[in-house]
Amino acid sequence: MLYRRLGKSDLEVSEISLGSWLTYGLGVEADAAKACLDAAFEVGINFIDTANVYGRGAAETFLGEALRDRPRDSYVLATKVYFPMGPEDQGLSRAQIRKQLDASLQRLRTDYVDLYQCHRYDGSVPLEETMDALSEAVRSGKVRYIGFSEWPADAIRAALDLPDVERFVSSQPQYSLLWRRPEKEVIPLCAAKGISQIVWSPLGQGVLTGKYLPDQPAPPGTRATSDEMGGFIERLMQPKVLRAVQRLQPLAAEAGLSLAQFSLAWVLREPNVASAIIGASRPDQVRENAAASGARLAPGLFTQAEALIAEALQD
Predict the structure, then answer these.
(1) Quick one: how many helices (H) and strands (E) in the chain?
(2) How distant, in Å, are the alpha carbons of 81, 157, 171 from that of 118?
(3) Which residues are catalytic?
(4) Is residue 135 a part of any domain in this protein?
(5) How far apart are the C-alpha atoms of 180 and 204, rounded to whole Å?
(6) By CB neighbour count within 10 A (0-12 exposed, 13-18 middle, 19+ buried), where does 69 fall?
(7) Is residue 234 one of the residues assigned to a domain?
(8) Angular region, 79: left φ>0, alpha ψ -120 to 50, beta rest
(9) Which of 86, 93, 187, 245 is most buried (most C-beta within 10 Å)?
(10) Which positions of the chain have pLDDT values less than 70?
């Protein structure tokens, strides 16, 4: 496992990180989730990403229990705030950041998180209030660094222009061969300002593993067959997209990688990406995906892959 510096922080994070969206504390049984977490540490993953809203606190509660016997300085722990935790508990106001941070720390059984992220932008709260509250969290010692997920470029710029506040070190966008929107504005802006990307859905909700075949039913037990976990995958399950993904298989084989490893290596080719977040329900998935770290491929393979996918995604 290789490691990269997270923005202008002193955090060194594994190129592959383990996420808990729709899985731990919710879609995956506790023993299986614990086995995945153990496998992650075995292969050198040191970065664990979660959020208060995942399972309405269930993912954080699981991680608090699962991590309690590990030295706190042996891993980097990130969580998030914004989405509703109750009828009146949502957003990025000062009161909510204070309340939700304390609740997250209690569930995670820790005195601090290494990275506290705004899960989305909150246009209903003055940006100054949000940034002051985040800065207060850092200066209190409850948070080491701050980040954001899926903020528009103008909001990022506005936050960076505010005086006397803590600076973001990370951005968490959706980014994959199937979703390249951050390349237009967010990645260039962040690269110029010392903010790293922590990528979610680098495997396109599992589509880039190649397990979904065109014109065939999704395999039983996969995300695409789950009412609970499959809502975000529908746009990627078009036959033309699935056919293009299958055409990536020879390129991955030429590189000596599985299709999942090839797709993760594509994400990690971007210098501004510090880590790619994977989800896993089995330890073997963790081990396979972790092996993408450090992969070095001929650039032409990625160029071919990009062309195949771009053609399939054209309207």
Answers:
(1) 11, 10
(2) 5, 15, 9
(3) 54
(4) yes
(5) 11
(6) exposed
(7) no
(8) beta
(9) 245
(10) 22-23, 25-27, 216-233, 315
